[in-house]
Amino acid sequence: RSGKSAYAEALIAAHGGESGQTYIATAMPHDEEMAARIALHRQRRGEGWHTVEEELDLIGALRAQPPGRAVLVDCLTLWLSNLLLAQRDPEDEIKALSEALPHLAGPVVLVSNEVGLGIVPDNLLARDFRDHAGRLNQVVAALAQRVVFVAAGLPLFLKDQAP
Hints:
By secondary structure, the chain is of the alpha/beta class.
Protein backbone atom coordinates (compact mmCIF):
# COMPACT_ATOMS: atom_id res chain seq x y z
CA ARG A 1 0.00 0.00 0.00
CA SER A 2 1.49 3.21 -1.22
CA GLY A 3 0.23 5.79 1.27
CA LYS A 4 -1.59 7.82 -1.39
CA SER A 5 -4.86 8.06 0.58
CA ALA A 6 -3.11 9.20 3.75
CA TYR A 7 -1.14 11.76 1.71
CA ALA A 8 -4.34 13.06 0.10
CA GLU A 9 -6.10 13.29 3.47
CA ALA A 10 -3.20 15.28 4.91
CA LEU A 11 -3.25 17.58 1.89
CA ILE A 12 -6.95 18.32 2.36
CA ALA A 13 -6.47 18.79 6.11
CA ALA A 14 -3.64 21.27 5.50
CA HIS A 15 -5.44 23.27 2.82
CA GLY A 16 -9.04 22.60 3.85
CA GLY A 17 -11.98 24.45 2.45
CA GLU A 18 -13.99 27.37 3.73
CA SER A 19 -17.05 25.12 4.09
CA GLY A 20 -15.42 22.05 5.63
CA GLN A 21 -14.22 18.89 3.94
CA THR A 22 -15.94 16.01 2.17
CA TYR A 23 -14.61 12.52 1.53
CA ILE A 24 -16.26 10.92 -1.51
CA ALA A 25 -15.72 7.18 -1.23
CA THR A 26 -16.18 5.13 -4.38
CA ALA A 27 -15.57 1.78 -2.65
CA MET A 28 -18.54 -0.14 -1.35
CA PRO A 29 -18.21 -2.82 1.34
CA HIS A 30 -19.24 -5.79 -0.84
CA ASP A 31 -17.16 -8.22 1.24
CA GLU A 32 -15.47 -8.44 4.65
CA GLU A 33 -12.02 -7.48 3.39
CA MET A 34 -13.29 -4.30 1.71
CA ALA A 35 -15.39 -3.47 4.78
CA ALA A 36 -12.23 -3.73 6.91
CA ARG A 37 -10.31 -1.43 4.52
CA ILE A 38 -13.12 1.12 4.63
CA ALA A 39 -13.18 0.97 8.43
CA LEU A 40 -9.42 1.65 8.58
CA HIS A 41 -9.81 4.66 6.29
CA ARG A 42 -12.63 6.04 8.46
CA GLN A 43 -10.62 5.53 11.64
CA ARG A 44 -7.55 7.25 10.16
CA ARG A 45 -9.60 10.25 8.99
CA GLY A 46 -11.28 10.75 12.33
CA GLU A 47 -13.93 13.40 12.93
CA GLY A 48 -14.46 16.49 10.83
CA TRP A 49 -15.12 14.82 7.51
CA HIS A 50 -18.47 14.67 5.75
CA THR A 51 -18.49 11.29 3.98
CA VAL A 52 -20.40 10.56 0.78
CA GLU A 53 -20.45 6.99 -0.49
CA GLU A 54 -21.05 6.97 -4.24
CA GLU A 55 -19.90 4.15 -6.46
CA LEU A 56 -21.25 5.37 -9.82
CA ASP A 57 -22.49 8.98 -9.88
CA LEU A 58 -19.21 10.63 -8.96
CA ILE A 59 -19.97 13.74 -10.99
CA GLY A 60 -23.30 14.23 -9.22
CA ALA A 61 -21.60 13.78 -5.84
CA LEU A 62 -18.96 16.37 -6.75
CA ARG A 63 -21.51 18.88 -8.01
CA ALA A 64 -23.59 18.47 -4.84
CA GLN A 65 -20.80 19.84 -2.62
CA PRO A 66 -21.23 23.37 -1.23
CA PRO A 67 -19.04 26.11 -2.74
CA GLY A 68 -15.68 26.39 -1.01
CA ARG A 69 -15.75 22.89 0.46
CA ALA A 70 -12.56 20.84 0.09
CA VAL A 71 -13.30 17.49 -1.52
CA LEU A 72 -11.27 14.28 -1.56
CA VAL A 73 -12.27 11.51 -3.99
CA ASP A 74 -10.87 8.11 -3.12
CA CYS A 75 -10.52 6.65 -5.61
CA LEU A 76 -10.93 7.12 -9.34
CA THR A 77 -9.82 3.61 -10.30
CA LEU A 78 -12.39 2.01 -7.99
CA TRP A 79 -14.98 4.27 -9.61
CA LEU A 80 -13.76 3.05 -13.00
CA SER A 81 -14.09 -0.57 -11.86
CA ASN A 82 -17.64 0.14 -10.71
CA LEU A 83 -18.49 1.68 -14.09
CA LEU A 84 -17.14 -1.33 -15.97
CA LEU A 85 -19.02 -3.77 -13.73
CA ALA A 86 -22.23 -1.76 -14.24
CA GLN A 87 -21.57 -1.91 -18.01
CA ARG A 88 -21.45 1.87 -18.33
CA ASP A 89 -19.25 3.46 -20.98
CA PRO A 90 -16.10 4.62 -19.15
CA GLU A 91 -15.09 6.98 -21.95
CA ASP A 92 -18.40 8.87 -21.69
CA GLU A 93 -17.96 9.13 -17.91
CA ILE A 94 -14.33 10.26 -18.23
CA LYS A 95 -15.38 12.96 -20.69
CA ALA A 96 -18.19 14.11 -18.37
CA LEU A 97 -15.77 14.22 -15.42
CA SER A 98 -13.28 16.26 -17.44
CA GLU A 99 -16.04 18.74 -18.29
CA ALA A 100 -17.24 18.99 -14.67
CA LEU A 101 -13.92 19.37 -12.84
CA PRO A 102 -13.03 22.90 -14.03
CA HIS A 103 -16.37 24.21 -12.74
CA LEU A 104 -16.15 22.94 -9.15
CA ALA A 105 -16.05 25.73 -6.58
CA GLY A 106 -13.52 24.42 -4.08
CA PRO A 107 -10.27 22.49 -3.79
CA VAL A 108 -10.52 18.92 -5.07
CA VAL A 109 -8.01 16.11 -4.50
CA LEU A 110 -8.43 12.99 -6.62
CA VAL A 111 -6.77 9.70 -5.67
CA SER A 112 -6.08 7.13 -8.39
CA ASN A 113 -3.95 4.06 -8.93
CA GLU A 114 -1.28 3.91 -11.60
CA VAL A 115 -1.82 0.50 -13.18
CA GLY A 116 0.32 0.92 -16.28
CA LEU A 117 3.69 0.20 -14.68
CA GLY A 118 3.35 -3.59 -14.61
CA ILE A 119 3.02 -6.29 -17.22
CA VAL A 120 0.24 -6.27 -19.81
CA PRO A 121 -2.61 -8.40 -18.40
CA ASP A 122 -3.49 -11.64 -20.15
CA ASN A 123 -7.26 -11.09 -20.25
CA LEU A 124 -9.41 -8.59 -22.11
CA LEU A 125 -11.27 -7.12 -19.10
CA ALA A 126 -8.01 -6.39 -17.27
CA ARG A 127 -6.44 -4.88 -20.41
CA ASP A 128 -9.53 -2.71 -20.98
CA PHE A 129 -9.43 -1.58 -17.35
CA ARG A 130 -5.73 -0.74 -17.64
CA ASP A 131 -6.29 1.22 -20.86
CA HIS A 132 -9.26 3.18 -19.45
CA ALA A 133 -7.37 3.88 -16.21
CA GLY A 134 -4.43 5.22 -18.17
CA ARG A 135 -6.69 7.55 -20.15
CA LEU A 136 -8.55 8.62 -17.00
CA ASN A 137 -5.30 9.48 -15.23
CA GLN A 138 -3.99 11.41 -18.24
CA VAL A 139 -7.20 13.43 -18.60
CA VAL A 140 -7.30 14.30 -14.90
CA ALA A 141 -3.57 15.10 -14.80
CA ALA A 142 -3.92 17.48 -17.75
CA LEU A 143 -6.58 19.43 -15.83
CA ALA A 144 -4.84 19.35 -12.45
CA GLN A 145 -2.65 22.06 -11.01
CA ARG A 146 -0.64 19.47 -9.12
CA VAL A 147 0.00 15.77 -9.77
CA VAL A 148 1.76 13.70 -7.11
CA PHE A 149 2.80 10.06 -7.45
CA VAL A 150 3.01 8.42 -4.02
CA ALA A 151 5.09 5.29 -3.47
CA ALA A 152 6.23 3.89 -0.13
CA GLY A 153 4.54 6.88 1.51
CA LEU A 154 6.83 9.30 -0.34
CA PRO A 155 5.48 11.95 -2.72
CA LEU A 156 7.04 12.44 -6.14
CA PHE A 157 5.82 15.66 -7.75
CA LEU A 158 5.06 15.08 -11.43
CA LYS A 159 3.38 18.45 -12.02
CA ASP A 160 3.09 21.57 -9.90
CA GLN A 161 1.63 24.38 -12.01
CA ALA A 162 -1.59 25.82 -13.36
CA PRO A 163 -3.36 23.63 -15.96
